[in-house]
Amino acid sequence: MKSDLDDPEYAAFAWARFRRILSGMAVLALVSAIGAVAVLWWWTGVMPIHMAIATFLGIGFTVLMGGFLMGLVFLSSGSGHDESVDYFNDAHDPGRDGRD
Questions:
Q1: Nearest to residue 66, comparing CAs of 24, 34, 17, 35?
Q2: How far are the Cα atoms of 16, 19, 46, 62 from residue 59, in angstroms, in the given order?
Q3: What b/e sequence results for 56-85 when a residue is b if at least 16 CB atoms lie within 10 Å of its CB, and e otherwise?
Q4: d(CA 13, CA 20)
Q5: H or E stretch including 65?
Q6: Which of 26, 93, 85, 21 is nearest to 61 (CA)?
Q7: How much is the pTM?
Q8: In the predicted model, what is the mean pLDDT of residues 40-65?
Q9: Nearest Cα to 60, choosing from 36, 42, 96?
Q10: What are 79-88's pLDDT values in tens digits?
C-alpha cells in the first residue's frame, strides 16, 4: 500500500503544511520563553544571566519539541502512513480482531 507522500504534489502540500505548523509553534515557543523569563524577572527581581538563558532555552525548546512532534503526528495521519502501518499489521499480528 502506497502512502500519499509517494505523490510528489501531495508531498509538497503535506510538507508545506508541516513547516507552517512548525513556524507557528516557533513563534509560540519564542513568546512563551520571553513571557516566562519576564514573569521570573518580575517575581524574583534581578536574576543571574545564566538562569535567564537556561529558562529561555528550556521553555523555548520544550514548546518547540512539542509542536514538532504534534506536527509529525498530523503529517503521519494526514498522509496515509498510519493506514499503511495498520494494513501491514493485519497480516503480521495474529491476535488482531480476535483471530488467533
A1: 24
A2: 26, 21, 19, 5
A3: beebbeebbeebbeebeeebbebbbeeebe
A4: 11
A5: helix 49-79
A6: 26
A7: 0.71
A8: 94
A9: 36
A10: 766 666 666 6
